[in-house]
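Appendix B, Record 12. Input sequence as logged:
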Amino acid sequence: MWLFSSLLSFLIALGLHAAAGRLPLISNSVLRFLAVGTAVGLALVAWLFTAYAPLAVEQLTALLVYAFACVLHIFLFASTLSSVSANLLLRLSRQPLLPEDVAQLYSGRRMTEVRLERLIGSGFLSAGPKGLTLTAVGARTVSAYERLRSLFRHVDAR
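Logged structural output:
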């Protein structure tokens, strides 16, 4: 029963994420899934506490399965957004492209423009008269990234 409740909760989170995508609430799809996934996860916790004894193995296992499914979804979904191969396949599913079209779409300059547009659209950067600058969200993200790099002792690339 615990496995069924975890998987059903994950499917509900996916469905609500799809529905929330049609509302003008949060434009960033990863943040939108985090909001929906957290709400569904809290509902799962409430249900598990009524179905099992507190801190039962089934409760913890159900929560771990749900969390794993959510993290896997975010990882795969976020990875696909920036994947050249995935984007190319999506474009080709809509219309045929000549090799010259592909070369133009995925040139170094165009790839940089697309990434910058995504960072601006996601609220990490803002474009102003002095150029591109980090927003508060971008600064918090960089700060968290630097703390994690330090925690895992990754060498600074600068």
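The longest helix spans residues 57-81.
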